[in-house]
Structures are given as C-alpha cells and as structure tokens.
Amino acid sequence: MTQGKLVSYVLSKFPPLTPVFGYPFYNNTFYKKTGFAMGEPVGVGDISHAGDFLIPTTDATNLSVLNHFHVPLPHPRWQVPASPSVPQRAGRSTTYVCFVFSDGDNVGTDETVLRGLRWSEKARGTLPVGMSMSPWLARLEPTVYNYYVRTMTRNDTL
C-alpha cells in the first residue's frame, strides 16, 4: 500500500471534521535533505478531501500538559486609528517596506522559531513588524499565547 493510500485509509476511519494534529510529511527523505516540505499540499489535500482539518503542530511539545493551564487570555492590542484614515498617495521619493513573518499557523513554530529566533531578538520592537500566529495557540498553549500578548511592544502586530 502506498503512503498516500494508507493515509487516505486511516483518515476514512474518522468522522468528518476531525482535527488532525501534526504535519503531513510526504517524501520525508526530501524534507530531511532540504527542509522543504514538498509534500505539504498533497497531505493537506488528503486531510481536506477526507472532510477533516489540519492543526499544524510540528515541533510543539507537551500539548497535553500546556492546554490544561488556565490563564487569562488577553487580546492583542490593535493599532486602530482614532479617526477613519484617508488613503494617501505614496510619495515618489518614498520607499515603503513591510516586514511580516509568516508560518505562524504551526503551533510548533510559534513555540520554537517565533520565541527563539524572533521574539527574543534584542532589536524587536524598534520597527513595526507583523508576525503571524496560530489561532490554536490560545487554546493549545495558553501560557505561551499569554506570554506573547503580555510582552508585545508597541511595534508588534500579531
């Protein structure tokens, strides 16, 4: 039985709308060599085709423990203008740059890469930066989510 057929068989044994935790690694050898998840679209497609949904949790640790902590879940501050903003023309001599860090849909990335490589960076907060974060983080790792919201700078956007 091929890997794809095995996955389809296993997924068919669950009711629709079953959350699938983890990450669909097809062609794991290629991923180990390159770090590029070439089979991700296929895996996500198989999960969706089965009527289920993926909660990416690669590298997330202790989810069974962390999701039992009951901590306040503050909402991130939003930079809402005091009055409706009027679209402005970009100046011809002005360069606009946007910094956005993505892949935050993966709870494990939020726990490891975001915390270790981005959030702890000494220069964080000196420029406006957007960082994507898994909507599942507040439920699966409420203490981690709480930490990010509590330690946001004025220039952080989640």
Number of helices: 7
SS-derived structural category: alpha/beta
Using the CA coordinates, give the radius of gyration.
19 Å
The profile of the biggest β sheet is:
3 strands, parallel
Number of strands: 5
Q: Give the rounded overall mean pLDDT.
A: 84
Q: Indicate the overall shape.
A: globular
Estimate percent helicity: 25-40%
Strand content: 5-15%
* Integer tally of domains: 2
The quaternary structure here is single chain
- The helix/strand order is HEHHEHEHEHHE
Distance between the termini: 43 Å
Q: How are the strands ordered across the major sheet?
A: 3-4-5
Low-confidence stretches: none
Pfam family, one: GxGYxYP_C
Protein name: GxGYxYP putative glycoside hydrolase C-terminal domain-containing protein
Domain GxGYxYP putative glycoside hydrolase C-terminal: 94-158
Organism: mine drainage metagenome
